[in-house]
Design a protein that fits this description.
Blueprint (H helix, E strand, L loop, with lengths): L2 E7 L5 H10 L4 E3 H8 L3 H11 L4 E2 L2 E2 L1 H9 L2 H25 L5 E5 L14 E6 L2 H12 L3 H9 L4 H6 L3 E4 L3 H16 L2
Parallel strand pairs: 1-5, 1-6, 2-5, 6-7
Antiparallel strand pairs: 3-4
Helix pairs in contact: 2-5, 3-5
Length: 194
């Protein structure tokens, strides 16, 4: 039975860099955010979102992601409704992906909201990636062309490192690429020997 390894961390922690490194080693990695974005282009999801939120989130029969994000961002009730549409679709897609990769001893699921979404329950082990707050903010500023205030708002909507670490089997302290890769290699070695 293929084991599922959850990989998570707060915004700007470097979890996607770690995921891409793991993928470069030939281990299958599922990037949940990327797959969710693709699934949100499907007719089934678009129709469900339109039914729930109305035409204001549509633009020429396409989902207007920015309008939808603005609508749900500071509204937990609406965010929950959106998650109730998207998360089951991602779970179904992920389960199919795991079956396609069942010849591997383990696969990795990278997800920013692994704990918040409840999908950690389906993982055999969990790796959390951490980095100092200021480092994370600087990374996101450089990557997203956003502002400090909106980054801090996004961080407030995620679990803290302490919360994630308490429920994780392994932690990668991402201070430099070289050191993070070294820690990742050590964890992968342990996982292969389990």
């Amino acid at each position: 039975m293929t084991k599922i390894i959850g990989l998570t961390g707060g915004i700007g922690s470097g979890k996607t860099m770690i995921a891409n490194y793991i993928k470069s080693l030939g281990i299958p990695v599922y990037i949940a955010d990327e797959e969710a974005k693709k699934l949100m282009q499907t007719t089934e999801i678009i129709e469900a979102v339109k039914k729930e939120f109305g035409d204001e989130v549509m633009d020429n029969n396409e989902l207007h992601r920015e309008k939808l994000a603005q609508l749900v961002f500071n509204n937990p009730d609406k965010l929950q409704k959106l998650n109730n549409i998207v998360h089951p679709a991602v779970k179904k897609h992920f389960d199919t992906w795991v079956l396609a990769n069942q010849n591997f001893p383990f696969v990795v699921k990278e997800a920013a909201i692994l704990f918040e979404s409840g999908s950690y329950k389906y993982c055999d082990s969990i790796i959390t990636v951490t980095a100092p707050l200021e480092t994370r903010i600087q990374r996101v500023l450089a990557r997203d062309k956003t502002n400090r205030e909106s980054i801090l708002q996004r961080m407030q909507n995620q679990w803290t490192d302490e919360q994630r670490i308490a429920k994780s089997n392994y932690v990668i302290h991402n201070l430099s690429v070289k050191e993070s890769q070294k820690q990742t290699n050590e964890i992968l070695k342990l996982l292969k020997n389990q």
